[in-house]
């Protein structure tokens, strides 16, 4: 079933609210998740932020207990593919808007040139 088309402007506003962070996973979590040393530093969005503006892009999980006994409450997973698609959509929309502005400027300059 396909959802009705969403308001593009509202979606772009939601996307623009997302902040991009540079972060490092704790050693306890990285060890538990099997992340090698070169994959423990990442740039991306935080699931908590995404949940606030795009709840469908977050997969709720459960409390995650690490081997150390530490518990991550209400562990969230970001559907990164969905976020990348949204970011690409945002970029495409910005490029389209820039092209429309440039086209309008060119048309205006052309009209002024023809009016002489």
General description of the model:
There is one protein chain. This protein is an alpha+beta fold. The protein has one domain (8-114): Arc Repressor Mutant, subunit A (Orthogonal Bundle). The protein has helices spanning 8-16, 27-33, 47-53, 80-114, and strands at residues 21-24, 41-44, 58-60, 64-65, 71-72, 76-78. Strands 1-2 form a two-stranded antiparallel ribbon. The longest helix is centred in the last third of the chain and has 35 residues, at 80-114. The radius of gyration is 21 Å and the shape is elongated. It starts with 7 loop residues before the first helix and ends with a helix. The model has no long low-confidence stretch (mean pLDDT 80).
Regions with little confidence, pLDDT below 50 for 5+ residues: none
Summed over residues and divided by their number, the pLDDT gives a mean of 80
**Percent of residues in beta strands:** 15-25%
Please name the CATH architecture.
Answer: Orthogonal Bundle
N-to-C series of helices and strands:
HEHEHEEEEH
- Number of domains in the coordinates? 1
What would the CATH topology be?
Answer: Arc Repressor Mutant, subunit A
CATH class: Mainly Alpha
Major sheet size, sense and barrel closure: 2 strands, antiparallel
Number-wise, the strands total 6
Structural class per helix/strand content? Answer: alpha+beta
What is the number of helices?
Answer: 4
Shape: elongated
Strand order of the largest sheet: 1-2
- Going by CATH, the homologous superfamily would be Winged helix-like DNA-binding domain superfamily/Winged helix DNA-binding domain
Please tell me how large the radius of gyration is.
21 Å
The share of residues in helices is 40-55%
CA-to-CA gap between the ends?
Answer: 57 Å
